[in-house]
Amino acid sequence: MQIKMPRLRRVFLISFIIELAGFAIISSLPIHNPALYASFKSEDHSIISQSFFPMWLSIFPHNLLIASIEFIPIIGIFMFLFSIGSTASVIAVEGTSTHVNGFAIFASLMLLPHSWLELPAYAVAVSTDIYIFYYLIKGIMKDNYLKIIYMYMFIVLELAFAGAIETSEILLEESAHPFDAFYMWIPSIFIIAFLIWLFRRINSAEYGHKQEQQPDEYDFNQF
Question: pTM, whole model, 2 decimals?
Fold first, then answer.
């Protein structure tokens, strides 16, 4: 039986839905771990006490490391699930320690634009991981290496934007007017629109008049 390659956009959407569902469910759990909460607060304080560029350098490379591991075939899938579980668990612990429902904390984070840049980047990474694995088992990796390079560069760019937006949000939240952090939606809307355009451009074979082709017939190197 021949395995047909799914379209990247569909794999991404499924991965992103799994990611959101995992965060929503796990963050709602009543997890009590004072040691983890103390460690989280200490690390959080060391980050938010910095100025813009050092803070960005604390956020962006860490997130990129996670996404880079998620690029590794098979290992990346486990890293994706582990990242969801560990991060959502910290939110749950924070909720338990502060007597606020963890899901409410997760929902509040989803109101900020950096979440809509960072979380999709991880979903893009793991969906590309699945593509790399497909290329390897089909023996066509050499014909699609440019596709992989483009997708990795896309994730680097997306996480760089996400880190800059998150850093700006943190600085605004620490100011006299914390709700000013929501103003970061103004540049984020344009950034998200640009990234959607770029994603569609890299995966142009999946859109428009070519979308009726069989997935195995896509020309991934036409970008």
Answer: 0.88
